[in-house]
Design goal:
By secondary structure, the protein is of the alpha/beta class. Helix 1 crosses helix 7, helix 4 runs parallel beside helix 5 and helix 6 crosses helix 8. The chain has 10 helices and 13 strands. The longest helix is centred in the first third of the chain and has 21 residues. The structure holds nicotinamide-adenine-dinucleotide. Nicotinamide-adenine-dinucleotide (NAD) binds next to helix 1, helix 4, strand 5 and strand 7.
Length: 306
Amino acid sequence: MKILVTGGAGFIGSHLVDQLIIQGHKVVVVDNLSTGKKENLNKEAIFYNIDIRASELSHIFQEERPEIVFHLAAQISVRNSVEDPMADANTNILGALNILENCRKFGVKKIVFTSTGGALYGDAEKIPTPEDYPVFPLSPYAIAKLSTEKYLDYYYKVFDIPYLTLRFANIYGPRQDPYGEAGVVAIFAKKLLKNENPIINGDGKQTRDYLFVEDAVRAAMLGLEDKNIGIYNVATGTEISVVQISDLLSQAIGVSIEKKYSPAKKGEQQRSCLDCCKIKQELGWEPEYKIEDGIRKTVEWFKNNN
Ligand SMILES: NC(=O)c1ccc[n+]([C@@H]2O[C@H](COP(=O)([O-])OP(=O)(O)OC[C@H]3O[C@@H](n4cnc5c(N)ncnc54)[C@H](O)[C@@H]3O)[C@@H](O)[C@H]2O)c1
């Protein structure tokens, strides 16, 4: 199949592109390399260095005629979205709309979208949090993701373009940059490998649901099947604290370094953990990596790539 991946030079997108190519698909990558990297790009993919907001994007759709679009390109920093909500909305809402409009005009058969479960439910009372829990986005980043989810629903109902929306937990693994939702794994790994103290914000008891990137990509690949439509959490259903992440990384690296604490970040979400029963029951997906194994693979990669 001919598949277009936006954000295919990024952390998750590049792993997805690799997997699509292994499975024999023709892959077109659209990425402006704002956080993505050339070295992440699979050499067998056709690459366009272009912004998802550009009007010239239509020439690429016309030329390449993708059957499926995986839309991953985004401004991914929650903190940046708070500082500059206009810039965030520009890429994450208007950019997404430009993709959707091109999908409509050029007969794309399906869209797969990477949303966020970590940021969408806010400080939920129900943990793990299922998809039907009321969303309470607490950042412009999460609001923009929710807005794109709603546009996808509209394009499906009105223009009959099916979609699969994946509400990812905090994804970690090789090629990760420190800026995204699970950036703490990358930041701490880099520090510990240099024998430096990782700085923990607050008491370090805040929790997240950490999913290894290969498991996330396996979930995204489900989008290739026509019947897989709708909104799904993609997660482990397990809460891990920042202190635990620090300990797991120290063990994997084989160092014992005193932890340093700094004042808590104002407004930081305390707990996040997603219920992944729906995707397990309906699409047969569940995580394969234990956190220890994912962390070990991540550490290996940072050792060899820094
Ligand atoms: N990493 C996580 O924990 C996590 C969790 C939930 C959702 N997501 C979502 O998954 C997707 C991929 O995230 P990631 O962690 O791989 O981040 P990433 O920054 O590595 O990937 C994003 C890619 O999009 C590209 N990009 C950004 N703005 C662009 C623009 N205007 N035009 C063209 N390309 C542009 C970047 O260059 C980069 O290659 C994002 O949509 C993100 O919101 C990530």
